[in-house]
Amino acid sequence: MMSTTNNTPNKLYKSSSPPISHLKLEAIFHPKFENETPDSEIRTKMLDKVDTHSGYLEVSLKHSGSLLLWSGRQCYFSKNSTDNKFTKVGEVLLMQHFARFYDDGVNNGHDITTSSSTLTGSSNWKDEYERCSEYVYSNRLTCSFEVVTSILGHHGDIPKRDYLILIAVADRGWNNGDNNGGDGGGSGGIGRFYSTNEVVKFAHQFRLPHNDIWIFSSRASCELLFDAYDELREVGTATTVVGRLDDIVANQSGTEGEEGGGMMMCATKFTSLYPHIMYQGDILEGVVIRFVPYPNGICTMNEGCDALSDWKDMLEEMKKIGVASNELFQLISSAHEKMDDAQPPTTTPVDNIASDYIPHVNLRALAELDDFEDRIDNVLQAFHGPRRRRIQSKNNVCQQDSEGSKDMKSIDVVNVAKEILSDTSHRYDSETLHIARLIQTLDELKIHVAYKIVMEHTTLADTSTTTERCLCILHIQHDSSFARYNAFLRKEGNGGMLLFRGFSIELVPSTTDQDTRIETNRESMDMDMDTPMCAMSSNANDEKLMLKMKFLPYMVRTFICRNGLGILQSSGIGAFENYALNQLRNWKVSDISVRKWIPFFQGWARYCSSSPIAVEGSKYLRHFNTFVELYASGQFQSTPEPTSLLSGVIIIVGPSKYDLSSLSTAISQELQCPKEIVHDIKKLTDKDCFMSKRGGLICTAQIENGVGCMWKLLKQNDEKIFFFVMAQGNDDTSAGDDVYSRKITGMTKSWRKLPCNMMFDLPLGSVDLSKTDAVLEYLRTNEAAMAMMEKLKECSKSNELDERPGLIVFFPLIPGSGKSSLCENITMDIAERNGRRIILIEGDKVKNEGKGKFYPVVTKEIMSQSSSVAILDKNVPPNSLSSLNALCFESKSIALSVLPSGLIDTHIGFNASSHVYPFPLHYLAACMSHVLHREPHIGKLDAGLKDACMIVVQFYCFYRNMTVEVWKEKLRNVGYHGRVMEIPFFKEPSLPDLPHDLKETLELAVILQTNIDLKIGNAAEDEKGVAAMEEKLRASIWNNREFIGNLTTSLEASRQFFINELTAEIDLLPDTTEPTITAKNPLARSIKIVSLDLEFSEVHAVIEKMKDTFPAVRKYFTQREEHKINDENDKSQNRFITSLHVTFAHASQMPQATMLSSFEHLVGVRLQINATALLFSDKIAAIQVEIPVDSATPKPMNPFPHVTIWCSENAEAYESNDLPEMVNNNQAERVVLEQPVVLEGVFRFWYDEV
């Protein structure tokens, strides 16, 4: 609905209650979807559903670009904004597309006919663009495009041509008949997304460029699809991937036979007008594989079945559309060869640009100019003239004007939603109520949303009337919010709206002079409305199966070479290499690919570091493509460095009048020292001396500077330092009688008195110091010099380092977490292992004993023996990771971070200013309680400190805006092979709800600290607020002390787990930091459980047998039959477990090393076991099993070996361990089989997801 005004001020109305009559969807794109289950499980489910004729698989290419939404006319939106360079470029590209593919000789695009005309972009394209635009606008559609350009940021490769691809169409006005309190008429629907058939037919109707799409409806073709991806995953390009998909279609198209039960199978392709290879290039991001259910459910072989008839009709239609798609491509393929020659960008003033200039705009040339957006604005202004859409952005803060009326431009969207939902007059339509409920739910869930209010002004074509609309763009700040919202919908089952990306709405103000509920005149769609549709109302029972499968050539470019630039520039080449290795490990690529790509990344890092111009991520491909050519020619490739013959520091001392550079260079070459020579003795540090044990270091010094700067350095490093002193001769007293000579003689004696490993004399005049070659000749031929060098090499051998990588254990936690208790006596509990020294460095001791800053002290301690295991008893918040990372790379140490169990994304704050933290509030409460109840603390953080609780809150806030996933990823990128250990902190994996007063107090404390950190408010008031909040916190902790005390596990259990896991980690430390990620490498993945995996059909055959014999069993499972369709991983539902197994060992019971040594040889081995009984309650059911006594097979750690069969909602599978006790307490039943049934399984390791 538009509000009309004749150039009136922006005040649209006086205050009303509420002032909004409608909320309308303005632009939407599909909700964010990420698999919450492993790809292998999704594949299996897809194949099973295709095999039972429940649906088919649809495959499309993933073009790499930016999202553009178009709701007709000038209503262009990017994902989170409008009227920006993304929308302007997209608008120009769409019009250029119409200019390219329309002309007077092609019947206005309505029929697929041939034409000899050239597609030069005559005036006809404007008519077709306007026709499409009005159709989209009047029918309330939103067309979503992927805009692929070289000017809006670089992805996998620079596209050959700038273009866009239609990827989705949303019908925002579609109504499913649910009024929800309103009349539901006309435009008051909740919308739907077009099916693929509809998208392609719509695209053909207007010659819009849809994606390449393949359809596979037989199991055989789907298996070939997955086989093709597995084969091409690490090498796939557009050429190879498209070729394989086309081959599958060619070989499987129209097959009929036994596999389909006599039913027609279909494999077909919808050909794009813009083939990926011709437009984007050969680097392919990936493919999207989606399971699409048939509209009328499962098809059977019964020829009289309506579903079968509809299914055949739909597949036949797909084939016809595929043929039409290819014919259209062939018809206008000449356009690919007759692209208009791009003209230079105009510098003409806007008034002089012709309105038909759009087809000739050279976007790439425009982008090179400083005023790019102004130039493209000029072009669009010339095209639209006075009808050009104008946007004014406003803040989302509710303000009032001088007359007391609320200003539409600064309306509070959340309050509007609440007012609408509190209204009892039933005057709001379905669409308004759905949107209002969504906004209210986001607020209740404290999902961080930015509501951007903009005012849109446009002038109608045939009048001077200006229309003004108020639009709101919803920007979801964190991707994890989509999963939270979807989980809420599943739990509530209330059919709420989905949470879209690219989500914009219109806020229609109330008016007194007209009925604001004007219905849109929707054109009759020339489409089959019985084709599959995706309603935008959620359905908790719908299982959406989708796979986003990327290819390694794209991933290494975008996610490593581009996204790793920040790490490379801030932390150096070593940190970048580690980041790259961690990425490859996370992607679980083969060792062959690791060996191929790691040298490539090393070369890229050296190229970027040597480039005089900083490499920017948004334009990285300009450098990358140059680097690829240089790398192929042999440049920047790794060559093995020669082993240095020096371990320690050589300091060459001589008079200032002599140039020591040739001498130092010659010695460096002779001893193969890789490091740069230090020419200023004052820059030599303790750290340099430590590092000199790995590769050596050479430094020059002037005798005249004196020895004062050396004494402090020599206190702890004398055994690492060698002096070369250049003198006048053997007898210093004969050096001369002048003042300068006597001074040199005296100061030389001072240098010779310095304590060091060895002192050498090098007589002046014995060699020409001006030429490096002459010095090298002297060192290699002079007997005294040769003896001196040999002696130096021998001494270096005794000074060599243990080159094995060490381990640095650290705690990224908050005060009161119990880390000091875990570390107490740790050096006695573990002692030395594998020749590695165990070091405990306590942060509070370092501070209290005045040893200096923590990290320099740690560096000195670790570098003295870098293969040690150093345990840092100190909280390491995010801002300290850079120091730790640098230390790991300098010492070649592996980083092991220790986290508590039970981490979960925790959102705190009011909606517009909420933040996410990785620790639950239960953890904050427990840590505060520990601080308040501890004995007087060495760091003085105990109950005696007046603001002790708020200091804990301050540390908690260091993790602001850090999700669990992001935090763990950062920790894995620290040092070499960064590892994360989680130790038991809470008693139970599912945390109970916090008491209301405790939860509210903790949240308010975090909000207060956030305001202080972000400097929001008054400092004096904050100081008073901290004191008052401290008092409240202590009172709340005390009042809830029993609840808090019952949250955490015992210190003894946590400490024993920590010792066991740490011991295992030490035992598994490698002898080198060389990259490898083979399955046997324990640093690659953590084993979660050792299981004996069983076949679903075999286990349920036992249940079916028992149902025939035992009425109670039959009744129990008959009542639960409908639960079989529910996802086993969705704990909000009653569900059957499909991944059936017997757990032999769990990571919480057994160290990683023990699991490896005890079970690694059994992986893949089959074992027969006996099913003996069924135990079941209202909450859970399991089959008890007996494991044969066999010395080669370890016994399960669980005293009750079993297979969990079924779980009720919110029940965890591990709760089946309690069934024997429940039977004893008459809370569960046990039915014993008359004869044990043999089951056969295979041993597997289940790994934690990386």
UniProtKB/TrEMBL annotation:
Residues 1083-1241 form the tRNA ligase phosphodiesterase domain. It comes from the Eukaryota. This is tRNA ligase phosphodiesterase domain-containing protein. It comes from Discostella pseudostelligera. The lineage of its organism: Eukaryota, Sar, Stramenopiles, Ochrophyta, Bacillariophyta.
